[in-house]
Structures are given as structure tokens and as C-alpha cells.
Write a structure and sequence with these properties.
The protein is α/β, with parallel strands linked by helices. The longest helix has 13 residues. The chain has 10 helices and 26 strands.
Amino acid sequence: MVNKSALGIIFPNTYDELVPELTSERLMASIPFASRYRLIDFVLSSMVNSGIDNISVLARQNYHSLMDHLGAGREWDLARKNGGLTVWPPFAEKTMNVYKGRIEALAHIISFLDSQKENYVILTDTNIATSFDFRKFIQAHIDSGADVTVAYTQEQLPESALRAKKMNKGMYYTFDIEDGFVKKMYINPQAEGVQNFGMNIYCIRREYLVRMVKDSYMLGAVYLERDVLAKSLDTIRVAGYKYDGYYGRISDLKTYFDENLRLLDDRNLDGLFSGGSIYTKLRDDNPTRYVAGAVAKNIMAADGCVIEGDVENCVLFRGVRIGKGAVVKNCVLMQDTVIEDNANVEYVITDKRAVVTSGKTLKGTDTFPVFVAKHQFV
């Protein structure tokens, strides 16, 4: 019987530069999402739901909020003596910079990888919110006989990805796939039409990964895709795994706004949460309270909110307060945001503890939502 046990490795910083408004003091993994979660909760919960209980998070910078959120991993049942959750802080020495790509990052924990018992390794980023069945993914990898398996979706490249290429913010990948195997890998393509768009989720046999990292790092490789896979598709068998489930890909502030508001449709909400429980850090608070005269239509509200005004088509995180006479439409309001009495707010994203003061009007558009930074008063 094949040993299907796997360990997970999460890269929480890879696409921070795509949403600089939200990552000046945090990393992509700890961006709030869907009213009460952080982006890392989705991939972390998916791993736990798939029986993966040895998970490492390789942080690069701005990781304090992430460590506060994850703690010892108790909410994910990962507070264990053996395996469990490990957050690796940045590795920086006098003669080198903090890692940039997966090969560099993995090279710093190669002795850890070498000493583990699991047969397979799952590598993933945190810019995609989805409920992913890693059991099926690992089985598909085994059945294909591939050296590496990469998950992909079929979609048109979003405008945000194309703009990011011009600004040199992160790399994205598409594939030519024949008979289930990747024949060519494109880095930051400008192609039109439906593409095989990489999710940056990989399955690799652990011993094979250890050898790959050791050999390629000695030759100066930094990135797994650009420096290793793309150049060696004739010798490394890379299988493609088409993902058809629900997902939300965050590639700029606009897609962050859109993906939150998409969840106001019950079909999308069910799609995201249908694959198993999504766990997150607990915050004991009162249920959301609707004061007499308040009007709420099509909203997602976490616990601890107090609503006295009119709210429509909004995602409200924990502890949001909407004052009397305030009108709030098409907004994403993060934790402890305050919209004071008689304020008028539309197409706005607020970071934590932002305040829109009494009587103010703040309006963006559906194509350009206004952003209010953490602790800011408007």
C-alpha cells in the first residue's frame, strides 16, 4: 500500500506586493477575508481537513500579525508535540538577503525536510481562498506517476495580473498541457483567451524535493518555477491537476473587494465553505445587534457588530459599528471600523479600526473602491 502521508509548507508572503495597501504591516496570509477569517485560514483548514497535521509556514517579513493569529495552532488542532504547526521566521545572514523564492526558502530548512517521515510535500501560497481537497490532489499525483504535480484553473488572465507584470510585482504562470502533463510553462504571459492558470499549489515526493532543492540551490536557483521547472520539463515530469471548485484569487485591491462581495451570493458562499469546516482564531463577542430603526439588506456580518443605520451589500468584520442615520452600501469594513452617525459611505474598503466621522460622505465606484487605512480618521 502506498504511503499517502504528506506535510504542508505554506509561503505567506509571495504576493504581498500585489496589495500594498493591505500589506504594509501584515502579509498576504493574514489579510482579513469573508467577515471573520484570514486568507491563511482557507489553505490551513483545507490541509487539516485532508489529514495533513505537519504544517510549516515559511515567513519572510511582517509576520507578527500572522503569529498572533495562528498562536500555537490550537484552533486547527495543530498544537501537538509531534508535527503540528511550525512558523519559521525569516532566515537572514550577514552575507545574504531574506529569501525571495521557494528554492531559497526550502534550502534553509532542508535538514528539517530531510528528517521528516511523510512521503509527500504540499507547497502552496495564500493568495487564493478555496476549500481544496488535498487527498484527491495527492492521489492524482500518485496515479500520474509524475515527479511534480501542479494545480491550475482554466480562466482568462485577470487585468490585475497583466498590470502586475508591468509593475514587476510577483510572477504568475500558465501552462501548455498535453495528455495531463505540462509541456511548456509561461512566466508572466500576456496571452488572451482562456488559459491554464497556475494556482501555485504543488505536490512533490519529499525525497525527490530534497534532492531537487540541494542540487538546484548549489547551482544558484532561487525560484522553483522559473529557475528549475520551466527549464527542465524534458527531464522533470510535471503533471497538471485541473481544479474546478470555487476559489477567490486576490491579485490587487479591486479583486480583494470583488471576492469579498461575491460571497454575498449564497451560491458562492456555499462553494467556498462546502468542502469542510474553515477554522480561525476565536474572538468571544456578542452576536451582531440591530438597533430599532436599522435596515440591513444582503450583508455578511461577523459577531460583535452594532448596526443603527442602513446597510446594504456589505461585508462587515468583527466589531463594526454603523451609527444612526448612516448609509453604507457596497463596502468591505474590517474589524472595529466605526461609521459615525449620518455618514454616507459607498464602495469603500476600510482597514481595522478606521473611522468615518459624523456627517461625512465617502464614495468610490465599482471599478475603483476607496481605501481607508488602519486607524485613520476621515
